[in-house]
Design goal:
Layout lengths: L1 H16 L12 H6 L1 E11 L3 E6 L5 E5 L21 E13 L4 E13 L2
Antiparallel strand pairs: 1-2, 1-4, 2-3, 4-5
């Protein structure tokens, strides 16, 4: 009886060691949205396996944000998406842990969740 209890505990320990705890996407809080933004010039969308919005700030630093979640599009906001390149924007983003297939793994990324054009 003692051997089977010890064996069961050992098996339970071994099984739980390989478990990965992975955060799931969640709605960002208002504080996260208003505090995580960048102001820059929209350079365009880079297409790989997933679309990335490309920006450059006044210091010449480049930023890239994944576009995975649905948010109000440029057209819904009354803008012609084809004429956004070169526009100055305020881009709201969050850092999130997402599963990508391909390549079949999780990654922590910066994801665009909204934007506004600064005239």
């Amino acid at each position: 009886m003692k051997i089977s209890v010890v064996f069961g505990l050992l098996l339970l320990m071994l099984c739980s060691c390989g478990e990965q705890k992975i955060s799931t996407p969640r709605r960002p809080t208002h504080a996260e949205i208003t505090n995580s933004y960048v102001i820059g010039v929209f350079k365009g969308i880079e297409w790989g396996d997933y679309p990335h919005w490309e920006f450059e700030n006044e210091k010449g630093e480049e930023f890239s944000f994944f576009h995975l979640s649905k948010f109000r599009t440029a057209t819904e906001k009354g803008y012609d998406f084809n004429n956004l390149e070169g526009k100055r924007m305020k881009v709201y983003w969050i850092e999130t842990n997402r599963y990508f297939d391909p390549p079949g793994e999780f990654a922590i990324i910066k994801e665009i969740i909204d934007f506004e054009i600064i005239e």
